[in-house]
């Protein structure tokens, strides 16, 4: 049978890639179509219809993206498509009832890992049978929504074929980047994260690939696709337990070198409490130059509320360990959550002020289906919105006011997907690649320029957030007109200040990309180059 899988491919979409490879191994014809924004709608519809698939599968990666997929499905039906339409991923796993109620044009929903489920669906379609009575599938039975049993996990991840990748690799700083998954799941139980809920029903929270199998895939990316940069997309790469983490990284590094991978570098992720000096050194010895750390907040009380298992001292020690090992850490500060106070915000701003040289951004804790935080807010009668976009009001009135002002004034600086702070995370990684692969006086000058603009913007962010905080502390909460005027004035001032820095950031990115393409050896880096690398954080 023929299937088209549709989803965002700002980076490589390995989730869809695994589905496509597994179904192709079982004899089906599966292609991928990129659809990230409504601007992609017409092109996506044309590609889908041109393929005349028996099944269209939607990988809805983000809840705030649901309406984009509603539009896609309705347009597809209006254009005459009569085949089977399904969807999956985190949104489908937790929101199947809402999706099927909202969208009668949708035939089924797939829950949890979908490789085996997709193949069984295609097999049923090939026999002319209705897609129902399958583990991992939700379907309509008249006016009733019926949920099949949970499909158990595929424990041996190495039995899965490698994910299908885009023909042109991604490019950062003129260097070819490829993406890799070495594990599925996470050992954490953070209240705001849906990963633990996603794996809980399957009764297998964390699964690892063998280091040698990981090295085989790295060698393929290195030798066949020209990749010198490997972006590890695991939810959790650094194992809990110092010796276990070190041993695994040593085995991956040794196996990759045995396969001729001599100079690859890695972007990885870690939990602060697991990053000891020895772990950081082992990561660097493997080739890691960048580590996204789950810092989240600098307040012990807020970390407990978020279900984190680390303390503020672990934030500091993890950063110090990375610095000493020659790894650049990046992170997000969740300044706000439903029960935070202005004092909590100030504590985290203190930490941000101590690290202006490191790439970071600020945000609010968001609410996702399946999480303990959503359940808690619903029980407290504080959950707002619906499954497409949940929200809340903070208990602390002034913290709520600060966030509302920040949402207006800092949108382009921090909150938008293409915000300046996000772009600076990507720019910092690009300059790391030039430091590693093209050391020279010219590189040093570019590196210094990247450091200067990053530190300048992050220092200014702290100053402006402190001004905002003190203004809100002293304000009359009932004087909405004055607060609205303040928010708008701040947005205009920040926008004017940011404009030349944004232009300089774009210029540095373009220069690093062009220079890297000229200096790179091996496969020409002709693939797409944009700032979406920061979305990996």
Structure description:
The chain is α/β, with parallel strands linked by helices. It has 2 domains: 2-147, 3-Layer(aba) Sandwich (Rossmann fold); 167-536, Alpha-Beta Horseshoe (pyruvate-formate lyase- activating enzyme), CATH 3.80.30.20. It is 48% helix and 16% strand. It has helices at residues 14-25, 41-51, 66-78, 90-102, 115-126, 195-200, 211-224, 242-258, 277-286, 300-305, 312-325, 342-354, 372-379, 397-409, 411-415, 420-437, 441-474, 480-519; strands spanning 2-7, 29-34, 55-59, 84-88, 108-110, 137-141, 144-147, 170-172, 175-180, 183-185, 206-208, 229-232, 265-270, 288-293, 328-336, 360-364, 384-386, 389-391. A 7-stranded mixed β-sheet has the order 2-1-3-4-5-6-7, with helices on both faces. The chain has a 7-stranded mixed β-sheet with strand order 8-9-12-13-14-15-16, sandwiched between helices. Helix 2 packs across helix 3 (66-78). The model has no long low-confidence stretch (mean pLDDT 94).
């Amino acid at each position: 049978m023929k299937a088209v899988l549709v989803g965002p491919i700002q980076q490589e979409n390995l989730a869809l890639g695994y589905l496509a490879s597994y179904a192709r191994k079982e004899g089906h014809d599966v292609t991928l179509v990129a659809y990230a924004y409504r601007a992609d709608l017409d092109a996506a519809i044309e590609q889908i219809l041109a393929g005349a698939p028996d099944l269209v599968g939607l990988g809805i990666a983000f809840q705030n993206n649901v309406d984009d997929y509603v539009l896609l499905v309705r347009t597809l039906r209006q254009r005459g498509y009569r085949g089977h339409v399904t969807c999956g991923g985190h949104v489908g796993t937790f929101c199947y009832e809402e999706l099927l109620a909202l969208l009668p044009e949708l035939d089924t929903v797939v829950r949890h890992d979908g490789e085996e489920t997709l193949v069984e669906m295609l097999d049923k379609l090939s026999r002319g049978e209705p897609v129902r009575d399958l583990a991992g599938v939700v379907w309509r039975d008249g006016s009733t929504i019926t949920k099949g049993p949970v499909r158990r996990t595929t424990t041996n991840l190495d039995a899965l074929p490698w994910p299908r990748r885009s023909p042109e690799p991604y490019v950062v700083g003129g260097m070819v980047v490829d993406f890799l998954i070495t594990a599925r799941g996470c050992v954490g139980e953070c209240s705001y994260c849906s990963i633990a809920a996603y794996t809980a029903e399957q009764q297998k929270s964390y699964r690892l690939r063998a280091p040698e199998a990981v090295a085989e895939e790295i060698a393929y990316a290195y030798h066949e696709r020209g990749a010198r940069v490997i972006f590890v997309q695991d939810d959790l790469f650094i194992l809990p337990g110092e010796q276990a983490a070190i041993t695994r990284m040593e085995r991956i590094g040794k196996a990759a070198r045995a396969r001729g991978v001599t100079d690859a570098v890695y972007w990885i992720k870690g939990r602060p409490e697991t990053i000891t000096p020895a772990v950081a050194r082992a990561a660097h010895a493997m080739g890691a130059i960048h580590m996204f750390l789950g810092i989240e907040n600098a307040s012990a009380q807020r970390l407990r509320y978020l279900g984190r298992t680390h303390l503020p001292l672990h934030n500091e020690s993890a950063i110090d360990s990375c610095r000493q090992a020659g790894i650049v850490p990046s992170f997000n500060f969740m300044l706000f959550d439903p029960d935070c106070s202005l004092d909590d915000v100030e504590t985290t701003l203190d930490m941000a002020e101590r690290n202006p040289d490191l790439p970071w951004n600020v945000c609010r804790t968001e609410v996702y289906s399946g999480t303990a935080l959503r359940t808690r807010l619903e029980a407290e009668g504080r959950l707002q919105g619906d499954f497409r976009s949940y929200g809340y009001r903070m208990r602390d009135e002034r913290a709520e006011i600060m966030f509302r002002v920040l949402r207006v004034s800092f949108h382009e600086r921090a909150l938008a997907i293409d915000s300046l702070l996000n772009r600076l995370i990507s720019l910092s990684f690009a300059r790391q690649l030039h430091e590693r692969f093209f050391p020279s006086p010219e590189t040093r000058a570019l590196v210094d320029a990247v450091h200067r603009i990053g530190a300048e913007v992050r220092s200014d962010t702290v100053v402006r957030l402190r001004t905002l905080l003190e203004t809100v502390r002293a304000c009359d909460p009932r004087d909405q007109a004055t607060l609205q005027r303040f928010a708008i004035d701040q947005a205009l001032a920040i926008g004017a200040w940011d404009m030349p820095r944004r232009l300089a950031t774009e210029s540095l990115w373009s220069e690093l990309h062009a220079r890297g393409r000229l200096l790179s050896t091996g496969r020409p880096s002709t693939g797409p180059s944009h700032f979406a690398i920061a979305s990996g954080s």
